[in-house]
Amino acid sequence: MIRPLGIDIGSSSIKLIELQEKKGKLEILKCAINPVSGEDIKTSLKDLLALSKPSTRRVNVSLSGPSVIVRYIEMPPMKKEELRSAIKFEGGKYIPFDINEAILDCAILDKSPSGNANRILLVAARKDRVNACIEIFKEAGLDIANIDVDTVAVLNAFQRLGLGAKQENIYAMINIGARFSNMNIAAGAYPYFTRDLLWGGLDITTRIKESLGLNPGEAEALKRNPGERNAEVAAVLMPTLEKFISEIRMSFDYFETQFGKNIERLYISGGGAYLFNIQDFLKENLGMDVILWDPLEGIKILDESGCKDFKNSPGQFAVAMGLALRK
Q1: For residue 306, what pLDDT is reported?
Q2: Beta strands in 64-176 (DSSP E)
Q3: Mean pLDDT (whole number) for 49-59
Q4: Element housing 206 (H / E)
Q5: Distance (Å, rounded) from C-alpha 176 to C-alpha 305?
Q6: In this model, does residue 136 exceed pLDDT 70?
Q7: So where are the chain's domains?
């Protein structure tokens, strides 16, 4: 069976992964990335397809940002059909915009701690945002199989690649994108907290550009490899990184207060995870192990012509991998 493509439209680039399963092992048929030119996503997407030449036109895509809400709620045990009907009436309690302007979906996760209810993953997205997404892919000649959420896609990649089940303690994941960072907090295979942080790699690039008087390309290069200007760049970035740490701590504190459990480990991915000092900075300020997660590790790549530098930053494919893993 041909799997749908996983296509992640980010603020600065579009990533594509096509998978196949051979003798029980995953292989990457296509791995490609293309920059987004200004706001012209449609042209960038068409260029990516021309570059990668995928074997299918079916795609799994995702959304993120303030127009998408993920909540974990408890509901009495009921059949899936009954749950979907109940969510239409109950969902309005949990989303910050008019439920009539939203598309809702849900999934049963596990039993609540009391055992008297089910924990439910509730996702809501604004209709206009969903319709705009559909239009972009339709114009490119693609058929959407599933619309996901970035945070859920990242968690799906982590779980489906067998990493979640190996975690004995509470762990967090942060996928650092250009404008948003996607956070998950989970125990084993089960997520408990999800949030999009309004902070990303562009905050860093902008800070370097404005503080040091550089153009965007120079700032981006310096962000990843400051060389002899290491101390200078680190000092410039401190206020921006402290804002990021504050956002993370606020979420961690909320989780630990709600559940009475401490987060032991943090996995980071996304293009922003390759900032030269961010792994050490997070480890020092959060007081926990911080691991740079490679979602492509151990998977054979058959065609990397559309992404020749992927080995330098494979973590930026976390969302695309999670989408490609959905059948």
Answers
A1: 67
A2: 68-75, 102-111, 118-126, 143-149, 170-176
A3: 95
A4: helix 201-212
A5: 25
A6: yes
A7: 165-292
How far is Cα 301 from Cα 52, in angstroms, rounded to an integer? 13
163 CB-contact burial (10 Å; exposed 0-12 / middle 13-18 / buried 19+): middle
C-alpha count within 13 angstroms, C-beta hemisphere, residue 82: 5
Pairing of the two strands 181-187 and 170-176: antiparallel
Q: Say how far apart CA 18 and CA 65 lie, in whole Å.
A: 25
Q: Tens of pLDDT along 116-128?
A: 899 999 999 999 9
27, 304 Cβ separation under 8 angstroms: no
Q: 180 exposed, middle or buried (CB, 10 Å; 0-12, 13-18, 19+)? A: buried
What is the CATH number assigned to the segment(s) 165-292?
Answer: 3.30.420.40
Q: What pLDDT is stored for residue 236 in this prediction?
A: 93
Half-sphere exposure of 136 (CA within 13 A, CB side): 23
Tens of pLDDT along 143-153? 999 999 999 99
Distance CA 72, CA 75 (A): 10
Burial class (CB in 10 A: 0-12, 13-18, 19+), 245: middle
Q: Could you tell me the two tokens for 147?
A: 């619309």
End-to-end alpha-carbon separation of the chain, Å? 9
pLDDT of residue 163 exceeding 90, the answer is: no
Q: Decide: 276 and 225 in contact? Cβ < 8 Å.
A: yes
